[in-house]
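[Q] Does anyone have a clean structure-token version of this?
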Amino acid sequence: MPLIPEEPQIHESAQGPRATPAAGRPAPTPRPVPGPRTAASPRPGRPGPAPARPTPPAPRPHSGAGPTPSPAASPSSPPRPENRSASPARPQIQLIPAPPAGALDAAEEAVDLLLETGRAPGDILVLTTGEQHPWATHELSFGDAAYWAQHDARDDVFFADASAVERAAQRPVVVVAVNGGDAEVAARALPAAMARAGALLIVCGDPERINSVLGAGV
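[A] Here you go.
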């Protein structure tokens, strides 16, 4: 009885193109390989268009003999008066311990986590008390007006020096990297960053130094 030779096995490389499959077998779909991201490249996580809402079903005709009662005829509780005197809620404060040399890396990791959990890029403002983020340095090379135009567009994460916090507008999330600078810069930047954080303030740096500015409640 003749022996049937075994079909050769096809090994796939880790990230390169897949080998040609044997005849009669469907080719596996290749998975995309993420490329490197430069400092000036936009961050991922931009939300796509919201799905269209389903059209509500048409109301069924009333089958009874009498007319259909109007919703306004049913009794309802009187509306509650709006409390306009309530003060705005204080943002939640999160402290990430890090040395000055690692505060910027910790801030970037916090931003990546926010984007992965669904936060829109335009919701995030990042401030640095020491050396500026490479993205800010790159964009400022095209001029101050073009740089701040991206801030006003509010369509991506914006990185700025803490000394310019007074020029920055409020965003839901503000991340501060205490990555250097003198004590006066942090003393001015942290309270201003808290005033511009609508929901969450994340501070990356030395906890003792940060608590001395924001207080023991951080």
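[Q] Thanks! Anything notable?
[A] The beta strands are 92-97, 124-128, 158-161, 171-177, 197-205.
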